[in-house]
Amino acid sequence: MKIIVFVLNEFLELFKKSLALYYQNVQTCQVFIKTLIYNIIYIIDMDNLDFLYEENILEHYRNPKNKVERDFGVCETCGIGENIDCGDRAELFLEIVDGNIVNATWSGNGCAISQAGMSMMTEKIKNDRINIQDLKLWSPAIIYNLLGVQISPARVNCALLSYKCLENVLKKI
After folding, report:
1. Do 39 and 70 belong to one domain?
2. For the chain, what is the domain count?
3. pLDDT tens for residues 75-123?
4. Which residues form the domain of 165?
5. Is residue 85, in this structure, part of any structural domain at all?
6. Which residues of 58-68 are buried (b: 16+ CB within 10 A; e: fewer)?
């Protein structure tokens, strides 16, 4: 029951945003409505609800680590990731000194799993003091491991949004 209330609250917030945006920008409103529809379909597919029961996903979604408010694409060491299917969007910012990452932050919006993935990935980069060469060896398996849940085919793009951001920032370095 608790999980259904959480999901319904998320829908209500998206719906409120979509109504407000309708009068400002019809195209942006359509993205929010599309996200709302995808989430409804997601709830109907009960196999995909497994990740919502994982407290670590919910914790990082409710209280994201290293999240900042920044304009997209304004730094040299940043990488953008987008999931056009549901409207998730994020950007990873790396501060690098002598080949070592001294800070990792992110900005963005999306579903619980994509936002938790960004939060968990930046925490690992910062806490493990990972350098650029080690980061280039990362694979999607590391992100799946961080999330700690089985990812259904319908949620792969959400789960790997953080990895897309990482790939894009590494192309610039």
Report:
1. no
2. 2
3. 667 788 888 777 899 999 998 888 888 899 999 999 889 999 999 999 9
4. 62-172
5. yes
6. bebbeebbbbe
